[in-house]
């Protein structure tokens, strides 16, 4: 009997945490570039942590966005163990509703890290009238039928008790449906958790894929990511545009 082929382990996986620590330490060095990020218009921003993460893990990113003039909100649902652990999508929709109403019905930009980016797109499809744009950071939002692309994901290694694979597959299948609001995917080819092959938005007039050099864990403490997120959030609500012509300079941050 033929045994299933064992997926190759990414050699960068063991370096995820040390790389993230270096990315965090590099923020002061990037200050001259980060202070050039345009000031925001005070619109609300919801930041959703990744799988197994919580609001403490996105504190640095949220602090930077607050410093650039946004009303920034954590998801306030504890550790992200999947929507099935917090009451389903309705619980997260209620959080979005609260932010939207508290900010005088101003549309909310949603930044989602890893699995949080999957949730961000689900919110955008469910409440397009409340969502201004989504920005995903290393999120598995692309095709899932490519075995080489769907490797080294945290939820595959944690086990069925924490995150059943069929639940994740359902999220990903639903996420393949296009959103009607602008969507940006920020990804890294050296991400050892979520392959860059599945971390990109489908090409359209209202989507953009931006590459950074980052670990997966470091996407929420990486100054390149801060710069790009800040630039995308600064676009006027009715004048979202792509940053592609600027990428040569962006990656030097």
What is the H level of CATH, i.e. the homologous superfamily? Alpha/Beta hydrolase fold, catalytic domain
Strand content: 5-15%
Largest sheet: number of strands, sense, barrel closure? 6 strands, parallel
In total, how many beta strands? Answer: 6
Question: What would you report as the Rg, rounded to the nearest angstrom?
Answer: 17 Å
Account of the protein in words:
With 253 residues, the protein is of the alpha/beta class. The protein has a single domain (26-248), classed as Rossmann fold. It contains nine helices and six strands; from the N terminus they run H-H-E-H-E-H-E-H-E-H-H-E-E-H-H. It has helices at 16-25, 31-34, 59-67, 89-102, 115-126, 154-158, 165-175, 223-233, 247-250, and strands at 44-48, 71-74, 108-113, 131-137, 183-188, 207-212. Helix 3 links the parallel strand 1 (44-48) and strand 2 (71-74). The longest helix is centred in the middle third of the chain and has 14 residues, at 89-102. It is globular. The relative contact order is 0.17.
Short description, anyone?
This protein is 32% helix and 13% strand. It has 9 helices and 6 strands. Helix 4 packs across helix 5 and helix 5 (115-126) crosses helix 7 (165-175).
């Amino acid at each position: 009997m033929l045994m299933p082929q064992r997926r190759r382990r990414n050699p960068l996986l063991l370096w995820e945490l040390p790389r993230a620590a270096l990315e965090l330490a590099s923020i002061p060095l990037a200050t001259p570039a980060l202070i050039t990020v345009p000031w925001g218009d005070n619109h609300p921003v919801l930041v959703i942590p990744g799988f197994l993460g919580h609001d403490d893990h996105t504190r640095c990113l949220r602090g930077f966005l607050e410093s650039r003039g946004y009303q920034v909100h954590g998801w306030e649902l504890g550790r992200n163990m999947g929507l099935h652990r917090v009451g389903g999508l309705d619980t997260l929709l209620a959080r979005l509703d609260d932010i939207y109403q508290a900010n005088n019905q101003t549309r909310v930009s949603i930044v989602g890290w890893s699995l949080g980016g999957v949730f961000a797109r689900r919110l955008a499809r469910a409440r397009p009238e409340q969502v201004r744009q989504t920005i995903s950071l290393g999120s598995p939002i692309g095709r899932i039928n490519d075995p080489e692309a769907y490797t080294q994901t945290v939820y595959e290694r944690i086990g069925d008790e924490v995150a059943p694979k069929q639940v994740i597959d359902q999220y990903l299948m639903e996420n393949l449906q296009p959103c009607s609001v602008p969507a940006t995917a920020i990804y890294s080819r050296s991400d050892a958790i979520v392959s860059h092959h599945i971390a990109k938005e489908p090409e359209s007039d209202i989507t953009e894929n931006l590459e950074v050099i980052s670990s997966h864990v470091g996407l929420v403490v990486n100054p390149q990511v801060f710069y790009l997120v800040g630039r995308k959030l600064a676009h006027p609500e009715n004048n979202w545009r792509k940053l592609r012509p600027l990428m040569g300079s962006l990656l030097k941050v």
